Amino acid sequence: MDTIYPQRLQQRSQVGMGTLTMSHVIIRGENGRRHEVDFGEAEITVSLHAGTETVELEIEADDPDRPSHKRRFALVNIPRHLLSKAMADLARRDRQDGSMPKS
CA 59 to CA 76: how far, in whole Å? Predict the structure, then answer.
């Protein structure tokens, strides 16, 4: 298992400020079953945990009234180099489209 560093990037969604984005996660397993986590209008916390080989993305709804075993969450573990490539490709496309300010 990869070592997970303690640094976290945490961001809260801005419900009620501007356009509301309905956060959700959809996965389909090898068996073909579809699983969905719909965060609806709940405030969410997004955390990144980076190790030397992998990055873990954790998304959790702020559900204080739900018992801990029923809270809505999603965890994604991916190879670090694939996340880096995807982020670089996105930044390149944004820059080409003019949707990202040039520094």
Answer: 9
